Fold:
Amino acid sequence: MRKTDLLTLTPAELAAYITGLGEPAYRARQVLAWLWPKDAASFMAMTNLPLALRERLERQAVIGGLSVAAREKSADGTEKLLFMLPDGQTVETVILPYRIGDSACISTQVGCRMGCRFCASGLPGFVRNLTMGEIAAQVLYVRRHLRARGSQLRGMVLMGSGEPLDNWEATISFLEAVKDPQRLGLSLRHVTLSTSGLVPGIRQLAAYGWPLNLAVSLHAPNNEIRNQLMPINKKYPLEVLLPACDEYAQKTGRRITYEYILIDGLNDEQEHAEQCAHLLAGRLCHVNLIPYNTVAELSWQASPQQKIQSFKAALAAKGISVTVRRKMGADIAAACGQLRNNYCGEPRNEG
Ligand code: SF4
Structure:
């Protein structure tokens, strides 16, 4: 019998499930509190439930079903976890230390079908969507881990393996749980969803009007270069993508973060900076410049520091808010996809 993952259930569904076992309604409220605010790692830890109920839940239910298969910690405090899923697949989660508190970078799919050329997560191709419970379990594990050492989870980014908008239902159910005071109870202002640019998903998300931060992988100042880097651009080119992002900013009041990986000689020249500035001028946005990480099979190289700074200056000169992303966890290959690829015996890459 397949076990029911209680994290996938809404509070109403959980109440129906627990009362369906012949338990009173208040037991459902107790279980809900253990699952979410109290971060119980197991049913046995739910000490105010009768032992018979805990044993029954152990037999027929599960809490996310993830277990840690590998972990690495960087000198700068970045921690990378590789989770084993119930079917033996693996996904990565990264804990990012910031001065204002720790943040979790979580995955939404095993592999990815977007095929971005610079990304290690996409290399093995798409395997499957994560369930809502598998997404939530990553966050709950991180929060439990942080609480145990006296720190707090301040935010999260849906920026690990997978395209969140390509796993729409689980992603939306997860975001509902994040903002639900009975469950994670975290403002979506502290959450960032990163997308390669799936326009229908961006527009659907805009319609919710949530204060969720949206990060969009731009990585190029024109369609010609973006087509080389991101196959999705052939379906949703810049003239389709940018108006959808504007709609998102307008409906949510949140500025869009455009991610831009700088690759030497490909997209980092002054003319590219000027094109990029022209593209984004007047838009409610911020640009996050990301120094490229070398991928073993690709000949691309990181831009020299001086080019990164000139690119940044060219955007700033046009009044565009811009920063260069701080490199975190470089000594443990914290870039997306690496730990999983190494674990699976595939070549070491950086995405
Ligand atoms: S960058 Fe993101 S969307 Fe692109 S292949 Fe990697 S995981 Fe998928």
Notes: The pocket of iron/sulfur cluster is lined by residues 112, 114-116, 119, 121-122, 161-163, 196, 351 (CB under 6 Å). Residues 88 and 320 are 45 Å apart (CA to CA). Residues 344-351 have pLDDT under 50 and may be disordered.
